[in-house]
Amino acid sequence: MVRGFLKQRGGGRGSRRRGFTLVELIVAGVIIAGVSAAVATSLSMALRAQRMSQTRQEALLRADAAAMRIAQDVKNIVRDGDLFFARLAIADRSVDGQSRDEMLMFSRSVETVRPIGDRPEGGEFEVQYRVVDAAGRRGRAGAVLYRRVDPVPDRVPDGGGIVFPVVEGIRSLSIEAFDGSGWQPSWESDVGGYPYAVRITVSAVSDDGSVVEFARRTVAIHRPPVPYVPMLDSLADGGLR
Predict the structure, then answer these.
(1) Residue 21 within any structural domain of the chain
(2) Which domain holds residue 185?
(3) Residue 37 domain-assigned (yes or no)
(4) Residue 7 covered by a domain
(5) Which of 53, 74, 128, 195 could link 148 by a cystine bridge, Cβ 3.0 to 4.6 Å?
(6) What is the pLDDT of residues 161-181, one digit of tens each?
(7) 3-class SS at 75?
(8) pLDDT tens, 39-76?
């Protein structure tokens, strides 16, 4: 009776469940490790691509901001029939094989330069751009683009005014003038007047210096001279002398 009861209840040695073998555990561990490695590799590649995209965008925004700032002043360049009140000078320079051109121009702007309470300012300013290697940038790569602004006319045509940084992380600055037949690396409006166009090319680097991006702006200049307006004392007998 007892044996029959145990047999009906499923008791005995034959009723024990079968566990995982060592080989099965090893195979499962290998599969889990492979899947984990694939997921980790995919995540690492995605994060690396995201960091690279952010780094490239950082360098590109710097280069574009510098080129756009210079182009804006070129668009507002002063045009006057008297070359004494009109100026555009481009100096072809380089540092360690990198182009570091400089530009000096007379440009119009509604922004004030000096603090309130100083001498009054007009709407025309002397604007100069220069790229300088700045010390103490906490290990960051690249130089700094500086902009000098000074109301004109004054006694010092190439100095004075207020100097402030525009964009950091600049690697090179190339400014060229188009004379109607080709792009010239240097220009002086006191000799040849205004060029037909100005081309600004800027390269900038990321903070870690691993990525270099370029930006370019070309600004056309209305070159025909402005009609000369004589002074009032030059009028005589209702006509021009």
Answers:
(1) no
(2) 54-220
(3) no
(4) no
(5) 128
(6) 888 899 999 999 999 999 989
(7) helix
(8) 877 777 777 776 777 888 889 999 999 999 999 999 99
